Amino acid sequence: MKKNNLYLLMALLSALFFGMSTPLSKMMLSQLPPFKLAGLLYLGGAIGVLPFVIRGLFVGGKRPESSGQGKNNSLYIVGAVLFGGILGPVFLLIGLKHAMSSSVSLWLNLELVFTAILGHFFFKDYLSRIAWVSVVGIIIGSILISMGEGASGPVSALFVALACFCWGLDNNYTSLIDNLSPSQSTLIKGIFAGSINLGIGCFLTGGWGIPVSVFFIAVLTGCFAYGLSISLYIASAQHIGAVRGQVIFSTSPFLALIMSVFLLKEALSFYHYAAMIIYIGAIVLLMVEKHNHEHTHSIMEHIHSHRHDDGHHDHVHESLSGNIVHSHLHIHQEKNHSHFHLPDLHHRHSH
Description:
The chain is mostly helical. Helices cover 67% and strands 7% of the residues. It has a two-stranded antiparallel sheet with strand order 1-4. The protein has a two-stranded antiparallel ribbon with strand order 2-3.
């Protein structure tokens, strides 16, 4: 198998593993309350990402203790754990308990909407007119699905929307953390959020009360869906590019919908099909957009994973190829240029 094909397969597996969590969680909710299940899923996620964190410590080299952004990074980590690890999954599972898994699978596209809106208004993540059309399209598709869910539809959609709002905050917080890799932040989130939710669940139900078989299925699901999935996505995106990686990962809700139909024997309605068409159009619009203009980078010092063939990292290392991903404290000098870019750590400028 060619190397690029291998990374494309990794991205597809990432989407598949993440998508399978929705129908499998729906099945487990008949035996576990939302807090307990959320805790086990995220603890499983920590287990799934642990090998990649250990590998990164040896491959990426030693890191300095501070990048000068310690206070902000700590706040971002706390925000990611609270919203992305504790509140988000519980809201999702409450909504999933009272709605079809196929509907929830598509509603999860709202995470993209909230990530974009919160990023635009609070995190200097610019949205163009095309991006706004995409956001509106996903909202319309979500309303259509809630109409097909009957009386419980709006309430379930509200809880899933709250989950996506929390994950939108999580995504923006995580993107600003400059001294931890995505795998490391996922490990921290999994350990702390998983333990807290599991503890709350045990307190509310008066004890452990988790069947052994369900325990292992939940942890294994989290290991693949919230741990290995993220690690595979990161590894593939580093080689095939963030845009291609995101395009492939955006198939996750649709893969989840297919699994819901086969595993749970759910029947799709007109509203599902209409929403799918709108969602696909909205995602395609967002992915084909090219944001390109002249901009200036200010002097900046920080830590993050990077490579030297991206046009932004021109410091020199002895015996290190430009396409090798590594991490250390480094300084960017002021630079003015024009190119296609996304709102990453280096492109949070105003428009």
